[in-house]
Write a structure and sequence with these properties.
275 residues; alpha/beta; Rossmann fold; 2 domains; seven-stranded mixed beta sheet; 11 helices
């Protein structure tokens, strides 16, 4: 794990009930959870952080998955005054799971949205993702204005054609804003095949004491959590409920917010505390 533990930038919602922390995915920022905030902010005290090397958080020396974990553990201990429900997407889901195992007294429940695990590790070379990351790396950290960078992204050649043929204009604009504030070095361990070094999903899930809701997006639509990984890890954890989102891709909180919220509210209603 990284020894350069960093203080994370955090957005905080209006004062409300039990803390509810959002942790974003690779190349994103705290704003990516906007589609979920309005439904939760009246009953939960919302927090949303930027990872190291993303958004307004400091840049780090290392960017393996395991290197992000101490930052989040530190935030759980010192950035929030009591245990929180934690929602992580993709990279954020893997980091949140490891933080819950490392600091069980600080996490009341976990919501894990499409954690990729070996899809971004040993299986990466067999997917279009590797060429996609190679294509976008040169634009990370660009100082171009958001509209200009969005147009540049639209014309970028990625697996399957131009990015503008695969993403709508609003998504391209959001990507442009996010990419401007990403350290290009975050992709180095991904491209080198070292992103999961020091991260053992089985050991992590075995160490999680709180209830887990895990969303599996549809692999046929870009989902990254495989059925085999979802089944294996749900058996390893003491209390894990898996929801498969048929027809929904990796950015489920953006593309299928109503479905996410329906399952999320039902899960939260089963927890043994009052917000």
């Amino acid at each position: 794990m990284a020894r350069d533990t960093l203080k994370l930038n955090c957005w905080t919602g209006p004062p409300a009930g039990v803390p509810f922390l959002f942790v974003h995915g690779l190349l994103r920022n705290w704003r990516c959870f906007f589609p979920l905030f309005a439904d939760l902010e009246h009953r939960w005290q919302l927090y949303s952080v930027d990872h190291r090397g993303h958004g307004q958080s400091p840049r780090g020396l290392h960017y393996r998955v395991a290197d992000y974990v101490p930052d989040l553990v530190q935030f759980l201990h010192h950035g929030i005054d009591r245990p929180a429900v934690v929602y992580g997407h993709s990279l954020g889901a893997m980091v949140a799971a490891a933080a819950a195992a490392a600091a069980p007294g600080r996490v009341r429940a976990l919501i894990l949205e499409d954690p990729p695990f070996e899809t971004m590790g040993s299986r990466l070379a067999g997917t279009p993702l590797l060429d996609y990351f190679r294509a976008i790396r040169p634009v990370l950290g660009s100082r171009e204005p958001v509209p200009d960078l969005a147009r540049r992204l639209a014309g970028l050649e990625v697996p399957g054609g131009r990015l503008g043929e695969q993403r709508d204009p609003v998504t391209l604009r959001f990507m442009a804003r996010s990419f401007r504030h990403v350290d290009p070095a975050v992709l180095e361990p991904v491209l080198a095949g070292e992103w999961l070094a020091g991260y053992d999903p089985g050991r992590v899930f075995h160490g999680i004491a709180c209830p887990i809701l895990m969303f599996q997006s549809d692999p046929a639509h870009g989902g990254m959590l495989t059925a085999a990984d979802a089944a294996s890890l749900s058996r390893t954890a003491s209390d894990c409920t898996v929801i498969r989102l048929d027809g929904v891709g990796h950015q489920a909180h953006w593309a299928a917010a109503p479905a996410i919220l329906r399952h999320l509210h039902g899960f939260l209603a089963t927890l043994e505390f009052e917000p």
